[in-house]
Amino acid sequence: MTAGWVERNNSLHRKFEFANFAEAFAFMTKVAQLAEEQDHHPDWSNSWNVVEISLCSHDKGRTITERDHRLAAAINELQNS
Which residues contact 76 (CB under 8 A, 6 or more apart)? Predict the structure, then answer.
């Protein structure tokens, strides 16, 4: 399991909290760039300083695959930098 992520409804899920909306939105922008690079796009939501992300491979029947773990690990690196 990728650190900080939980399996829920056939997806990897994680909630990120930030100091404010601007930080949350900046994080989402960075995640969007990673998703484009990996051609693997999350389901996500944002409410003020909270970003929730769910990852699953839609093309593999909405299951968790290695692609999801790779993107989750890359997102964790963003959070830790």
Answer: 2, 3, 4
Walk me through the domains of the chain, giving residue ranges and CATH numbers. 6-80 (3.30.1360.20)
Secondary structure class of 54 (helix, strand, coil): strand
pLDDT one-digit tens code per residue, 10-55: 999 999 999 999 999 999 999 999 999 999 999 999 999 999 999 9
CA 65 to the chain's CA centroid = 14
CB 20 within 8 A of CB 50: no
Q: Is residue 67 a contact partner of residue 57, using CB atoms and an 8 Å limit?
A: yes
Cβ–Cβ contacts within 10 Å for residue 17, how many?
11
